[in-house]
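Q: Start with the shorter request: fold the first protein.
A: Done. Sequence, then structure:
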Amino acid sequence: MKLIADVDDVLNTTRAVRRRLDFERKVEREVIEECLLMAQQASVGSNKEDWRFVVVTELEVKSKIADLYRQVWEETVSNPLAAGEAATVARLSPSMRETEEDKQRQIKILEGVKYLVDNLEEVPGILFACSSAPTPRKPMGGSASGYYGSIFPFIWSFQLALRSRGLGSVLATAIAHKAAAAARVLNLPEGCHVVAMIPFAYTQGTDFIRGARGPLTEIVRWEKW
């Protein structure tokens, strides 16, 4: 396994990988543990490791999670789009993108998500990121910033560590729609909640490039907006 040693290269080319995940190649346990140990160095609120993680590699468990994920797709994407639900159409429909390039990019993204939905149980490994801290009562303010800010740095560090070792991953937060059911499948302790899942695998090729992003001038101001 050849490491990508250039940190700028890793940061610039860590993409959401779905179609290019290699379903046939097993991911070694020691590689997963290396990535978890590196991710554990991420910042965490109040220095309290309220995070909990479950690595799933067995087909039986993956199949149960895949069934839940397909339900999420139907309930939050395919059915609302088919029904013309305004909020979902505005957020996800390629027809709402302004340029032809953006429309084609959104079509590609939806096709990639559907591919993962259809094949989730084939992915060699899935990391479930969970928290044992109390769930925030409000989505913004209060304890919410610390709750999510304590677990997503770990997730991103894990994804970067995977990329540096020739693996790809994708942050799949939609599983939170079925958090309670997923918790039962994973046999999580009482009070532990699924926040996100990260399917991962070696990639078919490692030639990933920078993602398409708008200019900084559209999103950045100095001193005040």
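Q: Next, the second protein, separately.
A: Sequence, then structure:
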Amino acid sequence: MVAVVGPSGAGKDTLMALAASRFAGRADVHFVRRIITRAPDAGSEDHDSVSEADFDAMEKAGAFAVWWNAHGLRYGLPADVFERLTEGHLVIANGSRSALSRFREAFPRLKVVNITARADVLAARLEARGRETREDILQRLARGSLTVDGEFDVAEIDNSGTVEEAGSKVIALLESLLKTPSP
């Protein structure tokens, strides 16, 4: 299981889309579509949108491999990821640094890919979205850490340069995981 994490504006969705296109057609590589309590057209990530009530019902029914709350929303990975992992496949999901302990509980073989970028790059990307003022963005970036806390197997990828540079690093990392035998 690969959990891709990082701050807003780091380019997680962009890099995952690039990697997904590279591995398209491979039956042993799966990019997870998350279930989120937000509008279907909100954000750049392709996701399944559900209401709070539906999310609660799904959680109670055991529909999630892992779920968490972040930024006023609820996120879940469908339970069918366990089937793919049991088959020895590589499963990649957009995660959250705050939920990594939940990921570790659900997935004993967990690789964390922390996508980062310089603060000025993050600020420019977030400002381009037009959701916050530059001052609010800079204050938020000053409060947050770009690192992963805890005992995790982490690969750091800096996406301050071109998407192609960081994308090639993500793809190379995923290819190396496909070549690593299971214990």
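Q: Describe the second briefly.
A: Residues 2-171 form a domain with the Rossmann fold fold (CATH 3.40.50.300). The first strand starts at residue 2 and ends at 5.
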